[in-house]
Please model this.
Amino acid sequence: MKFHVPSKTLYSVASGVSKVINAKNALAVLNNFHLAVADDKLTITGSDVENALMGTIPLTEVEGEGSFCIDARRLVDFLKEIPDQPIEIEVNEETLEMTIQCDGGNGRFEWVATPGDQYPQYKEEEDAGEPMTFNCPAEQLLKGIDNTIFAVGNDDFHPQMMGILLDIKADGITFVATDTRKLVRFINKNVAPGVEARRILPYKPAQILKGVFGRDDELEITFTAKSATIRSSVYVFNCRFIKGNFPPYDRVIPQNNPYVMRIDRLSFLNRVRRVGVFVDAGFGLEKLKITNDRIYLKADDPNMQTKGIESLACEYNGSDLVIGFSAPFLAEICNGLPTEEILVKLSDPSRPGVFCPTENEEGTDLLMLLMPMNVSEF
Model:
């Protein structure tokens, strides 16, 4: 079996597929790519058993068909060092010796492959239900992931929170993530799936979607009760959903926070980070005192006898309020909002703060919620 392929095209697809492969695998064969040549196409597959990613490359000057496995890390590292040029790959089907020639035959590199039939195949779980399909611009799917992924939980005791809820409606998709201390909800009406379902996308597949699919891609998404298949012109990604029910997120979002603060996002974020250096490492508490035209930020660590205080101009329509938040979470929330100014909607020191951009993109609605911490005085 012999074929020619552009080196940079092969590197691009192989490095993309490698994102699904774990650093450590229980099965040694999962450290490999599965490469298959058929119908003048090369298909590269990577898998961690739960997820599988396939990339397809058209070939020229093809002789023969077949499949084999090759070490993924070594192949990607090698291709990274090859300048953009056609390369020739030849595999002896009896001995599985693989040779790559480049630079007009001046470079020759040899591997020993393993049989392709040893690679585990991704299988749909039984009783997965009737599949549903809709088309979606990758840009719209990735926006939802970008806005919510930082709020995904990592507590094994709450596995349903270790992913992003896709609340799919006929006229839009709502993306939700929470770790019980912060919650992000992003409504996107710029895509109309035409079907209804609720599925929880795990963290790793969400990261793979961000790292592999281009924002200009058109995606075909087919899903069942247990898994999804996402197709673009180059990649096919199979992933399993998290089992169970996502918490009823609408119940924890305050419907009436009457006090609204408007503030410059970057100025506020910078002060949160600076004052946050002085928090008690065991609690992470940063106190906020809000008046009608100014907000004061304070953190202290009695054990280390350190303290930080800053203030910043703001617009605020309520009575003076003292509230506490986790400094790292507050910085994450502010960093995730896209506008120059942000709105902070508050009620009292025991109720969550709602953080919003001053203006949403057309067809979208972004809301971030942060639970307060106990604070007695400023």
Q: What stands out?
A: Residues 183 and 251 are 12 Å apart (CA to CA).
